[in-house]
TrEMBL record:
This is ELMO domain-containing protein. Residues 85-286 form the ELMO domain. Pfam families: ELMO_CED12 (PF04727). PANTHER family: ELMO_CED-12 FAMILY PROTEIN, ENGULFMENT AND CELL MOTILITY.
Amino acid sequence: MDDRGGSFVAVRRISQQDLNRGHSTSSAEVVAGSAAWLGKGLSCVCVQSREGDARPSFDLTPVQEECLQRLQNRIEVVYDSSSPEHQEALRALWDAAFPGEELCGLVSEQWKAMGWQGKDPSTDFRGGGFISLENLLYFGRNFPFNDSSNYKPLHSPGLVLFYSLPFRNLCYNLTCKDLPQFLQRSFQDLLLKQDGDRAMWEYPFAVAGVNITFMLIQMLDLEAVKPQTMLGATFLKFLAENESAFDLLYCITFKLMDHQWLTMRASYMDFNAVMKATRRQLETELLQEGIKRLEDLPSYNLLKRY
């Protein structure tokens, strides 16, 4: 236990050797550690200021003001487990993650399979609010693995198992008639950790997603009346052109974070370092010359891999 307090969930990957021995995964393999994944633990990544940073104020056009206000209204919404709208969004997220797999309830051990810290995902939304659920749902709907109506079982030793559930048989056909190829390998690849040489203990997908929402809000200074950094002002130009810019940037950031994770050969104790590297790379790309839209970011190409 370190002096930061808090807790996280680490996820043990199952090797081919384990499978050959008939290894059975239990909840004991979702282990608690000492670094916080949400809120307190992420503050060292997201809200620290840099010495010498100027804090200018940027004037906004009426369109930018309107778009910022609508985004701020979304950010202010706290997840309400009693809200039918929020409950429906949570069910929709399950369907996007595990199509065809019946959900037993909004409070269920099944949620650990997505990378929530417990059986009730609502307890993890404190770091990002309802918008963090919206971000995950946008990612799942717009950048899925493929058409969920056309899949076949595929045994894979590389799936991340959070508790005893037959996810070795939950994988999808790489062929999709209804979606462009560049949309096929994002959300499901990150959820099931199917891309790259993964660590034995991986970051939990859903909790990492909430952290990314929180990081972006802080990095872009989106709770200010008007942007006080060049990053914030640059982003509002994108937002005025595309009201889904925050959601799209979230998807790009999630893929970039996973790319950094693999590049750094990280394991669960390296999560904060990976988030810092992700933020630095994103800041650099957003301020590059010639970036007219989010699709021009070099890291956008990570969404297009297949």
